[in-house]
User: Fold these one by one.
Assistant:
Number 1:
Amino acid sequence: MKLPRITILATLLLTVPAAAQLQITPPAATPSPPAEKQKPKPPPVAKKKEAAPAPKPSASPKPAPAATVIPAPPTDNSNVDLVFGAYQRGQYKTALDLATARAATGDAKAMTMLGELYSNAMGIRRDYAKALQWYKRAADAGDREAMFALAMLRISGRGGAVDKGEAVKLMASAAKLGEPKAAYNLALLYLDGQTLPQDVKRSAELLRQAADAGLPEAQYALATFYKEGTGVPKDPERAVRLLQAATLTDNVDAEVEYAIALFNGTGTPKNQPAAVALLRKASRQGSAIAQNRLAWVLINGMGTSVDKVEGFKWHLVAKTGGKGDPELDKQLSDLPAEERAKVEAAARKWLGTK
């Protein structure tokens, strides 16, 4: 069975075969660019963020890192609000001290916070074993964020032995309590068919739950289901609505897919200027696919005015991200030397090279 490509949000290393990407179709007189396929990406499932040095910028599209498990404090407990406030402000040592005091009173949210701080080396040395202990205590007390975080530790083997069976049970419990990242990751397990028996309908149900809760990665993944008819009836219009929702949170994959849908009028009225604007945005965010598509529309004046210097600049940038295009290489070589020099200078400036 062909499965759609989806972004993985946490430490589950799942490999899902890529589905054919929608293609911008230029006018008949213009050479048609090859159909784009997005490769399956390495982590992200809805991930607990690791505290680590800031990632280096890259020209290739990277999956957006999933949100850190941030234990939401109950509104009727000002002491826990102080813990959460210190965490949000980056005052991790203060959050650690306050959460330790609150955890001594049996507060589950404070326990989850301690798990988070120990897991991510925030305000204290990283200690997965202690993180696991605090998450377990909070999960046993019914905290859904702790259940999900503990599931991620169990499935990755951080802080103890790998236990996929327990991880699945914890994920299912967290999803039942409304944790969208848990529902999303559980959907991936049902889709992958390795840890759990493959069940695309169940996967779609869980993706819908996470998408309805506003998780952009789930909205994008469910859009691919509706586009391909995987576990749900084919519905291009619904797919586009989900893509549009995901773009509101700057999901780069969704921006590219939505731009292509707008350009071709697939599941939505054709709107090429809006498509070009989205391609520009995704290109600036580092999507090599968007950069390649933007190069074509700028060079050929599709939905925008012709700008060959800018277009070929994006072609060279996309090439560094693994999206080379022999046809555009040929067209670039045919440019006058002065114009080629401008293109190369613009690409170097964007890439930060001399």
Number 2:
Amino acid sequence: MIKTLRVRLYPNTEQMVLLEKHFGACRFVYNHFLEVRKKYYSEHRNERKKRLSVFDTMKMLTDLKKDLTWLNEVNSQSLQHSLVEVDKSFRSFFRHNGSYPNFKSKKGNQYFIVPSGFKAEGNKLILPKFRYGIKYMDKSAIPKNVKQIVITRDVDRYYASIQHESNEELPKGNGTTGIDMGVKAFLTTSDGMQIEPLNAYRKMEKKLKREHRRLSRKKKGSNNRKRHIVKLQKIYQNISDARTDFNHKVSTAIAKRYDIVVIEDLNLTSA
């Protein structure tokens, strides 16, 4: 079973710069070779070799790094994994399991993948190119049998999602229940247990409206506006954190109490 341990990273200023270089370089490689593969297919679609393989693009990446030397500042395996992602996106599309691949944006989720070459020493996570390691804070030790690490940024926070193999069995209850998702109550089980909604957004709604009004008065392109955007992002980040924590606690409590859970198929989100 594959499990994920998510820990928060505390990089210093130099490490933050290098993390941002990794985000940007991996995004650039993804977008560059997405365009390369699109162009190749349009020009060779009627030929025997109509598509580039991931190995073709890896050879092309080696040549590209000779021209764009700044790519050498970034972990080569992370750059290669961006090519694997492009390949997966195209395979999924041609198998009718996904939409046509889109270019990645600076405004989207920022992440890069470290497939190997990592280790933990004390309270530091050692990654390729990060010679002294990045500090992390978590009560859990870094597990063994790590498959890969995904580094992400959420506003001004950095995280490492450590994917690893585990033989640990999930806790199981010994009962059966049906769950009804509602509006007044977050959920109600068939044996009468009710869980009230978190209402994380509603609790912050007045503050959000006030901060949005203040943002509208800031001059576009100014540093004050940029700082205020970050302030708003942090509020939304806190709402998201509260929802995630709430959902984890509810799902864990249900898993420990019941062995079989039946739930209606509705697209509802918690407030």
Number 3:
Amino acid sequence: MVCLGNICRSPLAEGILRVKAEKAGLDVEIDSAGTSNYHIGEHPDKRTISNAAKHAVDVAKLKARQFSVNDFDEFDHIFVMDSSNYADVLSLARNDNDRRKVEMILNRVYPGSDMSVPDPYFGGEQGFENVFILLDKACDVIVSSLHKS
């Protein structure tokens, strides 16, 4: 899961997917990162933590890190939150195999739409709730697809 700073959208997506994968009995590695180095080592935004907790998802202990080329070797799927994250991650891809792993997360719910998960950082509580709803739907589809594979 990748967003810009790894303090709002991607840690929330990581937390949601962890809960859903565990409930589904999937043995998968889930992580999140940011394309920037703005918040390395920081915990998620307090509003992200609060919103996640409201939905029984604990992201309080997660710490931001920056996406790296090694992530292409570590993960089969790399879900990005918006077109800027998509371009930034693709710029690090070494080959077609790396590029095939990168996907806009909302394409799982709205195929081919290339819709962005809006960044709630400068908004209010409702923005964080809207992001939760979008990511929750996408993670349902991801878990379903992993369950089949």
